[in-house]
Amino acid sequence: MRILILAIAWLMVAIGIVGVFLPVLPTTPFMILAAGLFARSSPRFERWLLEHPKYGKPLTDWRREGAISRNAKIASVSLMTVSYAIVWFAGPPQLWLKLLVGAILVACATFVLSRPSPSQ
């Protein structure tokens, strides 16, 4: 079971890295999930991820306080807005589908904006 959890954790890291380059795919949720899976399968890889120069601080802030930095909130909501504009103007013609995507993005943005900022 440990090997399966470790493999899924590495898959989450890979998807998170792809998300760095694709604006419609978020990075942070996959890294948070990977850190949690590494905690159950490999303390060494968990430590590596939590000490990573780019991902370590946001993961530690999330784990400690459930916090998201102001810059991350701005980037997240901005990219959601751009993504929705693309869906609205170039996406499927069905109005109900556009509205459903909009409702999901509003719910996601509300969640992101409702998280506290890190205390440091």
Automatic annotation (TrEMBL):
One of its GO terms (cellular component) is plasma membrane. It holds the Pfam family DUF454. The chain crosses the membrane at residues 6-39, 72-90, 96-114. Keywords: Membrane, Transmembrane, Transmembrane helix. The keyword Transcription does not apply. InterPro entries: DUF454 (IPR007401). This is YbaN family protein. It comes from the Bacteria. The keyword 4Fe-4S does not apply.
